[in-house]
Records
---
Amino acid sequence: MQNQINGMQKTMPRREEEEKRLIQREYRKLLKSIKSKMDTTDRHNIRMAYEIAVEAHSKQRRKSGEPYILHPIEVARICAEEIGLGPTAIVAALLHDVVEDTNVSLKDIKDRFGDRIATIVDGLTKLDGMYNVASPQAENFKKVLSTLLVDVRVVLIKMADRLHNMRTLGSMPRHKQLKIAAETSFIYAPLAHRLGLYNFKTEFQDLCMKITEPEKYQEVARKLQETKQERTRYINEFLKPINDALRDIGYPYRTTGRPKSIYSIWNKIKTKKVPFEEIYDLFAVRIILDLPKQKEKQVCWQVYSIVTDVHTPIPERLKDWITTPKSNGYESLHTTVIGPEGRYVEVQIRSERMDEIAEKGFAAHWKYKGIGGQDVFDTWFDNVRDILENQDSDAIEFVNDFKTNLFNEEVYVYTPKGDLKILPKGATALDFAFHIHTDVGYHCTAIKVNKKLVPLGYKLQNGDQVFITTSKNQKPTESWLKMVVTGKARSKIRSAMKEERRKQGEIGKEALQRKFRNMKVDYEENVDMLAKFFGFNSRADLNFEIAMGNINLADLRDFFNVEGNKLVEKVSETVAEPESDKNTPTRAGRKKYTGKPRLLINGEPADDMDYVLANCCGPVLGDDVFAYLTVSSGLKIHRTTCPNATHLMANYGYRIMKAEWVTSGDSSFVADLIITGIDSGPGVIERLTHNISTDLGLNIRSFSIAGNEGYFEGRISLLVLNKDQLNVTIRELQNLEGISSVTRV
Ligand code: MN
C-alpha cells in the first residue's frame, strides 16, 4: 500500500513534466513557423500572450485528453505557417479561447495588448459563443460575415480554428462530428473558396467527406496510394521532353504533380458515373516559375508554347486567369493537353507570386496589394456590406442568397443595347429577365441568346447578348424555380406561386368542406389534424394538394372512422398500401411497416416516440442516420448522406438528434431504386421482376419504367429488411444483362 502511494506521487509530476515539455516544444515550433518580420514589441507580445494562455487554460483538457493549450498554439501556428499571417493575428489566435472559457476578461486583453487585438479576440469570442445558444447556424453565419468587415483576420483565425478542430474531430461523439462537418461544408468551405484559401477549402471538403462518407473516403485514399508510383512515372515521362526547353528560359522553375483532392475525385466518380480507374485527370501538372512581376505574363505564355509544342492542346480547355484574374484573386494559366498514352493532362502555369496567392488566398493577396492592379477583395467586401445592410428577410434566406450571389464568381452578359450586366456564375436566361425587371421576369415567354432561341433555364456564358420576349398572358409556374439561381428571381417566383397556390387552394378547401359535410364532421375541428396526418405544415398546403388532385378524398374512410363530429385515425395493420396511393408523396413515409424496428434516439428507445422515416432519402435498418425534429410532424429519420442533411444540420443544428439502430424485428423498409439500362425488348422488365421477387424473394411495392431510343430508366420500390439485404439486391441487379446502373434514391 505504502509503495503504491509513493509510486503514484512519483508518476504524477513526471506526467506534468512531460506535458510541460510538450507544450514548450509546440510553442517553439510556432515561433519557427513565423515568417513575417517582427520587432521586439511583437516578440514580447507573443511571449506574453502565450504565458497568459498557458496559465488561463492550465486546468482544461481537450476531448482527446491532451492539455487544452495545445489547441490555441496550433491555431496560431496554422495562422502563421498556412495562411502567412503576422504577429497581431498570432497573438489573437493564442488568446482566441481565453475570454470565452477562462476568467481572463476582454478588458485585461485591451489593457495589455491594445485595441486592435482586443477587437479581434472579441470577434472570435462572439463567433464561438454562438454555439452555446439555441440559435440557427444561419444567424451564426451572418455573424461570421459581419466580423469579416470589422477585421478580416477574425475570419481567417476562425478558419484556422475550424481547421484544427476538424483535423482533431476524432474524439468527438459521432452526432457532433456530423453537425460540425455539416456546418463546415455549408459555411467554411465556400467562405474559404471565396477568400482564395484553396488549400483550406480542399482540406475542409476532404475532412467532411471523411466523416460523412468514411468508406468511400478510405476507398479513394487507398486507390490514390496504390497508384502513386505509376503517377510519378507518368508525370516524369510527361515532363521529360519539355524540361530542356524550360531550363533554356533562364528563370528558376519547379514542377509538381499533386493529385486532386479525394473529395473532388469522388465527386467526379459520382457525377460522371465512372470508376476510379477511368478518371484520367487525377492530377494536374503545375509549372511554377520564379520571376519578376513584369515578366510574368510573357514568360507564362512562353511556357504554354513550350508545353503545347510537344503535347497537343485541347483549345476549349485553355483558361487565361492571368489577363483576367478570378474575382477571388486567383491567377494562373491553365490548359489541358493530350499526354503520353493519349491521356488528358491539365497543366497549370504560374509564377511563385501567383502560386502563393493560390495557396494562401487573401492573406497573400494583401501582401502583394501594393504592387498594382485594383483590389478584387475591396469590391467583394463592398458587396458583403450591401447585403448585410439591406437584408430584411430571414436568416436562412439570407444565407442562401448570400451563397449564390456572393460566393460564386460572376458572368458578364449584355442587353440588346450593349449594356453590361453582371450576374453570379451559373445564372440562367430567366435570372437575367428578373434581373432586368420583375415584370419582365413574370411575363417572359421566350429568350434569345446571340440571336438564337434558348430554353429559359439556359446557363449564361460570358459575352452573351440576351434578348427577352414578354407577353401579358404569361405567368410563373412551379417549374421556373428550378430554372433560376439568383435570390431575386427565386423570391419573386415564390411569391407569385404563393398567390397562385392560395387561389387554387380555395377550390381544394371547398371540396374538403363538402366532403366533411357529407361525412358529418366539423371542418374547423378536423382540418388541422388532417393536414398533419398527410404531413403538411399548413392548411394552405393541404388545400392546394386537394385542389391538384394529389389527395383522394374518397379514400378518407379507409384511414379514418367518424366518432361524433371527429375523424379518428384507424390503426393500420397491413404493410402494403393501396396502389392508387403511390402518387401521394406526402403519405409515403407514414406507418408503412408493422411494429417499429428498434431505434435509439438520443440514446433512448424510440418505440414510443412519434417518428417517421424521411421520404427524401428512405433510410433502412443499418443506414447511418440522424433524427430531425420538425416543426409540426414530430421526428423524422434521415440518412446522413441525404441531400437535405447538410442543409438541415447547418441551419437547424439544434434540432438534430442522434439516432442509431439497435436490432431489428422483422419489419420491412421501403427502399426506392433507380435503374437504368439498355432496352433490349420486353425481356428486361421481366428479368428484373423475376430476379427480385423469385430469386431474391423480395416484395415489389411499385414499379414504373420509361424509355426511349433503346434506353430506359425505371423506378422500383421494394420492401427490404435492412441495408445489407438492400446492398445484395443492388449488386445482383447490377449484374443483370442490359442493366447499366442501379442506385438508391
Ligand atoms: Mn478554438
Note: Residues 89 and 153 are 7 Å apart (CA to CA).
---
Amino acid sequence: MTTAKGKILIIEDEVAIAEIVVDYLKRDGFETDHRVDGSDVQSLITTDRFALILLDVMLPGADGFELCRAIRQVSAIPIIMMTARVEEIDRLIGLELGADDYICKPFSPREVVARVKAVLRRHVPQDPLKQAGNTPLEIDHDSFIVRLHGKKIDLTPSEFKLVAALGAKPGRVWSRAQLLDVFSGEKDVFDRTIDSHVKNARKKIAQAFPELDLIQSVYGIGYRLEV
Ligand code: CA
C-alpha cells in the first residue's frame, strides 16, 4: 500500500537522527523506510517504489558519494543528500552526482520535510507521462530491455547501460568521464568506447525510429538524452 504522498527511503547510520526525520515525515503523511547503510540500495529501489531518497554522506561501507552514483545508474529517483559539513556541499555540487538537493546537519526536521516536499513538487510535474505509465522511453532494469514508444530496441548490455544512465535524467548533459563511471570495474573502456557504444545504440534506435534524435551530442562535453 502506498499513500498519496509516497514512500521516503532514509539512508542514515545515526539512528537518533533518522528516527526524528521518520517521525516528522510520518506525521506529514509520508511512508518511510530507514536503512543504516546502502548495501542493497540498487535492488531496494528497483523492487520497492520510493518517491525520494534522503541520503547521508558519511556512512559505513559505501559512502553517500558512491551510493548516489550507483543509484543514478539505475534510477532518476529524487535524492536529497545530507551532510554534517557545510564545506562538503560545494564538493558534492562540484561532483555532479545527480543529487537534487543538499541539506546540512544539524537541520530541523521541519526543514527536511519542507525540502522533501519542494523536491517532490519540482520532480513530479516534469514527468507526467511516466506517472500515467505511458512514457515514450521505458527502461526495464530487470530484463535489460529498452522500449521506445512501446517498441523493443535490441541493445547489447553495454549499450543498455549507457542508454539507462542517460535516460535516468533526460535532458541532463553527461561528460564522457561521467559515462565512463557507468562502466567502472570493467576493463578497456575508454572515451572512444563510449562514443562507439553511443554510435551503435543510435543506429539501432534510428532503425526503429529514423526521425528520432534521442541521444544528442553536446559539442565539447558529451551526450544527453532527450525524449
Ligand atoms: Ca553518518
Note: The first strand starts at residue 7 and ends at 11.
---
Amino acid sequence: MRTAIFPGSFDPITNGHVDVVVRALSMFDSVIVAVLNNPEKKSMFTLSERVALIQDVFAAEGQRVLAKSFSGLLVDFARSQNASIILRGLRAISDFDYEAQMALMNRSLDPNIETVFLMASEANSYVSSSIVRQVARFGGDVRRLVPARIVEELAKKFPAKK
Ligand code: ADP
C-alpha cells in the first residue's frame, strides 16, 4: 500500500487541490489530505470544518481519500500514517522557492520520505484558497474555483446582498 500525504491549509479546498488529489490517485493507493493545525494563522473555516468539508468532497472515493488534521512536524505525521510520500502542488515559479526549502528540510528530517510535486493543471493554475476567500467575501462567483459543496458553505458565510 502506497500512501501519499497531501499537507496544506485548505482554507477552503479548491478545484486546484481536488485536481492534485485525483491525479495522485493514479499513482498511489491512497491519499491522506492533511490539514495543518496552525493556531498562528487566522482561518476562514475552522480546522474541523476544513477536515469535514474535504471528507465530503471526496466521499465517493471511500477509503482511498481520507481527510485528517495534524499538528507538529509533517514527517512525524507521515510516519504515524505509514506514508512515505509527501505530495505538493506547484502552480508557478513563485511557489518553487518555498516548496524547495520545505522539501529539503523534510528530507533532512527523514530521508526515507520523498516529496513528489504535481504541476497544477492549466485551468486551475491561478486558483488559490486566498483568491477564493476574497472573491467570496465580495460576493463574486466562485463556482469555477471550488467544488459545489464549498460553494454552498461560502454562500452560508456570505449571503448574497439584496
Ligand atoms: P499551504 O498553506 O501549505 O500552501 P494550501 O492549502 O494553500 O496550503 O496548499 C496546499 C498545497 O496545494 C500546496 O502544495 C499548494 O502549492 C497546492 N496548491 C494550491 N493551489 C493549487 C492549484 N490551484 N493547483 C495545484 N496545486 C495547488
Note: Residues 8-10, 14, 16-17, 20, 88-89, 91, 95, 120, 124, 127-129 surround adenosine-5'-diphosphate (CB under 6 Å).
---
Amino acid sequence: MARVFVITGPSGVGKGTLIRGLMARLPELELSVSATTRAPRAGERDGVDYHFLTREEFDRRVAQGEFVEHADYAGRSYGTLRSELEDRVRAGAPVVLEIEVQGARQVREALPEAVQVFIAPPSLEALRTRLTARGTDDSEEVERRLQVAEEELAAQPEFGHVVVNDRLEDALEQLTAIVSQELA
Ligand code: 5GP
C-alpha cells in the first residue's frame, strides 16, 4: 500500500513550515526532494532543498520520463523525480510531497491512493503579507505568486482535506491528525 501524502496550496501559505512541524511529530515520514530550474535562494543546498537543474537537464529528464509530475510555476519548472518516490514507496516508507496545484492534479491521476491536503490562507491579503514579510522574493515575484495563488485557491474543492493556516499551531494539529489517521 503506497502511502504518499501530497501537501499543496499557494506559495507563502506555510506548507514548508507545516511540513517541518509534521515531520518532527511523525519522524517516520520522508520528504521527497523536488527538482527545479529556479536559482537557489540564500542558504538553499543542492540535493537537500531541491535538485537544482539547468533548463536543458530538466527538459532532458522530462523527455526520458523521469518525472512523476512536473509543472511550470511563475516562469520556472518544478517536478517530482520518480527516483525520489519509488524506492521509498517500495520500502513501505510514507513519503511527503510539497508541490503546487497542477502537480497535485497529476499525482491524483498517477497515484489515486495518495492522500491530498490543501493548505489555505485565511485570506488573499494574509498571503500577500506573508509573502512580503518572508523576504525571499522581490515585489515582482510576489505579484506573480499572488496571481497564481488566486487560481490555486479556486481549486480547493478538488481536495479531500483542506486545512486553513490561520494559527500555525492549530493548522499543524489538524494536519498531524489527518496524516496520523491515514498512517494508523
Ligand atoms: P518555491 O520557488 O517557493 O520553492 O516553490 C514554488 C512552488 O512550487 C511552491 O508552491 C512549491 O510547493 C512548488 N513545488 C515545489 N516542488 C515542486 C514539485 O516537485 N512539483 C510541483 N508541481 N511543484 C513544486
Note: The CA atoms of residues 4 and 148 lie 25 Å apart.
